[in-house]
């Protein structure tokens, strides 16, 4: 991964009442504040940083918001992966607005492929990095599973990054950052944890047992404190460790892998959560709790933001906390995630409305008051990270959690279950859904199904796999909810 900086936002927009069931599902049908802020960032990225000729995003713009042309007119692949995450959360929060851009961008990343792997840059001859391939592969898998399940081409492309890493494993399953480091005994955090998480995601729907086996074996190795990657005292992960002379060390080949960044520990927590869901083993959930508490202790102060740079774990912290909340329903995780994003929105924007993007802790972390600063340049990656974090919170605060059983719906919420659904979608609200009409729209905003309401079940068997919005309306009443068709 290379080094950059980023920040942005536009002028504040007035929160409008939702005029359509394709927008948000907030309890008052006023637009969720996180969605307003998140869409503002994403829209800024889509206008100021987008190179339409390549369907890619540029690395940075100057203080006048003019594109700085470099490296063939596109960002490095690491920022590109964060941009893909931002678009994914945009599509989850507002499918009609962002799904088409997510799809086109995911396929446009083919321009980074060189010699059967993802290079660090689109410029011919750019070196590939194992951690870059791991994060791009994981981002493509998330886009495929969560938003575009019919796009099997994205699944196949995700395997390019995954297999590049898995095929480089040494006897201890260590993978370095660069091809030139093969044979060093290097166990690099991002090049091992992210592929393990990727395998866990595949295992959810794959009959092939190898993926779950790889995820479980990697988890044991990564979290074996004698291997030095995980610190047994702090329960945080170092950047890398080395195996040599029949032992493990944080130093080797003139390098030192000691030191914590949140993006090293947060995917390990997400891996533990996935393994808990796949196996039912509470050991994984208990371990995830220990590590999540360690992250909060290390980087978070309530009301004062996150002491971490966006792409080195600021956005990853928010994503991990929301993921945790969706698994165990403990409100402390969601409260912390919202508090982090609240501070970012209220204090993290400079005079041009941009968010932190520097690689330096002195001016790049998410706990700074930047309201009176004027940026000389703005890089894309920090803005994409901010967009992803804010829209992740928007999505969970807009949408009741998916469930196989009906839960008590709030006064103006529509609950749908099961979600994902196969054939029959059940609907429930706090009041009887008597009369009116149900409309189902696809991710492009097209109406694909309408039916009068005679009961609380809707036949969706004819729908293609994908993400949809179901909307019930009767007179002035309107309820809507997102669901996934398997």
From TrEMBL:
The record ties this protein, via Gene3D superfamilies, to: 1.50.10.20
One GO biological-process annotation of the entry reads: carbohydrate metabolic process
Q: Which Pfam families match?
A: Por_Secre_tail
**Signal peptide span per the entry?**
1-30
Q: Which InterPro entries match?
A: 6-hairpin_glycosidase_sf, MUG_Protein, Secre_tail
**What are the entry keywords?**
Signal
Note the SUPFAM superfamilies from the entry: Six-hairpin glycosidases
Q: Where is the Secretion system C-terminal sorting domain?
A: 416-483
Give the matching NCBIfam families.
Por_Secre_tail
- Protein's recorded name: T9SS type A sorting domain-containing protein
Q: Which organism is it from?
A: Hymenobacter wooponensis
